[in-house]
Amino acid sequence: xxxxxxxxxxxxxxxxxxxxxxxxxxxxxxxxxxxxxxxxxxxxxxxxxxxxxxxxxxxxxxxxxxxxxxxxxxxxxxxxxxxxxxxxxxxxxxxxxxxxxxxxxxxxxxxxxxxxxxxxxxxxxxxxxxxxxxxxxxxxxxxxxxxxxxxxxxxxxxxxxxxxxxxxxxxxxxxxxxxxxxxxxxxxxxxxxxxxxxxxxxxxxxxxxxxxxxxxxxxxxxxxxxxxxxxxxxxxxxxxxxxxxxxxxxxxxxxxxxxxxxxxxxxxxxxxxxxxxxxxxxxxxxxxxxxxxxxxxxxxxxxxxxxxxxxxxxxxxxxxxxxxxxxxxxxxxxxxxxxxxxxxxxxxxxxxxxxxxxxxxxxxxxxxx
Length: 369
Description:
- The protein is mainly alpha-helical.
- Helix 10 (295-303) runs antiparallel to helix 11.
- Helix content is 34%, strand content 4%.
- The chain has a domain at 8-31 and 255-362.
């Protein structure tokens, strides 16, 4: 029974292993959330496409380019008329502009500190010099786990005016702090904890993020002071005036979508969905001996690639997969491979890959007492 493939540019998933072979995956007892997060991220077809577009332009460049610097490693708004133009020329043509490095875009968009190659598995990208916790070997990769050092003292702390300038682009839930290397670090770290706690309701991270600051629009040519709001607003750009500097977050900021021991199966389901998009899944079921009526709705839904509904697909997929694993048992926890559990794995694969839930996994506390 044949099924059509989804056009490559419209796929949500990209297969990195054969979902039928458990030996191609990390073992279920691996408790390293950073490794699972990377394995989920590299199965995002959108990330793979962006990697192909950005890898030649990705560079470690200043947050604000120097006048003669090329803008190729930067995101520019508005876009430059010429593809490769220096910042001086661009700034003269677009006095009102916003420029920031592609490196910062990758961190903001994907939550990773480097543009890692998605064809590389976790073993290939582990940097043993950056392992600070045996249970979180790729913590350095994810921005939610790693502090970035700006204005590193390895070259120069002070210039001739005894001042140094540091600029950076921050994502919506990032803040910049600075500390003195010659100061009392214990006191500074305690101060840092107090200041971070102040952003949260009740002074602790179990509360939602407080909405207390708004984007500064006072320098806009169409800004006016609002007596009602007691702050400047942009009369021609109402959305910007209403945009909070700190957005409301669900109180479950530390919510983990799935148990770490289930991620082995969630990862395999991500590859199963990718196989479906590639038009291979139905044949793989048939090769495994599945001959039930549940293949028919899977094949029917997957044939109609123009109106592809993942939500409608996961229930028949789970029934067909349950039959597959009944004929080809999982060597670990085979008793759990029922349709309800598999449907949960499929939904978590969708959330973790297509909706970037891998970041929830990445920030899980892996430190053992």
